């Protein structure tokens, strides 16, 4: 197999690159010239430099490629560059689909998100669920939904594309929750917000396994929710506390957290600074709840992920060993 990975230097993309190489695949990675390539330091892959909307670079990257894995995305909540997010997540996805169609690749695996379902209000949903939320919770929510619409449109035109929809992606090198875990393991995380918030969890390497299984087994046009299970934030810290003996963080009062978000939001916009709390982040902590059922991936693809407990324990152990 010769495979292209867009966003090859990213969290998910880099894990996918190594997994493909371990299976003997020839791997091409599309990255920007300004990209940090530290995650790819020990890989042997062909790099093609270009923006995700650069069709010439995409065409070069897809020469002789059998399978395209589209993982590139602008992932952020809070104060974001909405125009850039639109360009990367929406127009970038359109460019990948168009060039893949013109290049005649055999399979495209698109890394989407369970967020496309919108706020399910705590209802556990599967791939057949139709979004009920009529507005959008964030620029990320909007752009990933629009990107999925583009992918589905191309699938209806017989492009052999399959969508995987991960929940929260965890790993020792996770750029989002990883730093929080590091602070917890050092005993520095004394306060946390939204202990009741439910989060779906999947280990990044299990997500990679699901993507590879989808490439191997799935008919075109299918969607697969990828989640090992879910826990509240409080339950996550309780599990980690049992393993490490580190006390769980205290729960910050909701009123104080909301006040802080309302105060920091305009300051962040004025100073072009990403505050730890903003109105958008507060919304995700307290008001938005997306819950999913990943039975289809287990049954149709034979996907066998780590349990949520195993995922958290493994990550904590890796972080402790790395200091």
UniProtKB/TrEMBL annotation:
Give the Pfam families listed for this entry: Epimerase
Ranges for domain NAD-dependent epimerase/dehydratase:
3-226
Recorded superkingdom: Bacteria
Identify one Gene Ontology CC term for this UniProt entry: cytoplasm
Q: Which GO terms describe its molecular function?
A: aldehyde dehydrogenase (NAD+) activity
The record's section on PANTHER family has: NAD(P)-BINDING DOMAIN-CONTAINING PROTEIN-RELATED (PTHR48079:SF6), PROTEIN YEEZ (PTHR48079)
Query: What's the protein here called?
Result: Epimerase
């Amino acid at each position: 197999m010769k495979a292209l990975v867009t966003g090859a230097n990213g969290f998910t993309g880099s894990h996918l690159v190594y997994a493909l190489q371990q299976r003997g695949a020839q791997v091409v990675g599309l990255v920007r010239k300004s990209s940090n390539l530290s995650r790819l330091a020990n890989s042997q892959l062909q790099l093609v430099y270009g923006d995700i909307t650069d069709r010439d670079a995409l065409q070069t990257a897809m020469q002789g490629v059998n399978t395209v894995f589209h993982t590139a995305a602008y992932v952020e909540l809070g104060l974001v560059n909405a125009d850039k997010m639109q360009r990367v997540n929406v127009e970038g996805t359109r460019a990948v689909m168009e060039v893949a169609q013109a290049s005649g690749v055999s399979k495209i695996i698109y890394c989407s998100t369970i967020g496309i379902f919108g706020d399910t209000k705590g209802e556990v949903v599967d791939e057949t669920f139709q979004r009920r939320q009529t507005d959008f919770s964030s620029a990320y929510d909007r752009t990933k939904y629009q990107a999925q619409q583009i992918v589905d449109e191309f699938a209806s035109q017989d492009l052999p594309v399959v969508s995987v929809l991960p929940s929260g992606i965890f790993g020792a090198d996770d750029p989002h929750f990883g730093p929080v875990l590091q602070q917890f393991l050092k005993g520095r995380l004394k306060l946390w917000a939204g202990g009741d918030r439910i989060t779906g969890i999947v280990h990044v390497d299990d997500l990679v396994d699901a993507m590879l299984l989808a490439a191997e087994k799935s008919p075109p046009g299918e969607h697969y929710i990828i989640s090992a299970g879910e826990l509240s934030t409080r339950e996550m810290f309780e599990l980690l506390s049992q393993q490490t003996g580190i006390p769980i963080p205290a729960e910050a009062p909701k009123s104080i957290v909301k006040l802080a978000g309302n105060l920091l939001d305009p300051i962040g916009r004025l100073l072009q600074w990403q505050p730890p709390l903003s109105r958008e982040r507060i919304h995700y902590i307290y008001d938005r709840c997306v819950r999913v059922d990943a039975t289809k991936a287990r049954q149709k693809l034979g996907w066998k992920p780590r349990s949520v407990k195993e995922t958290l324990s493994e990550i904590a152990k890796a972080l402790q060993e790395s200091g």
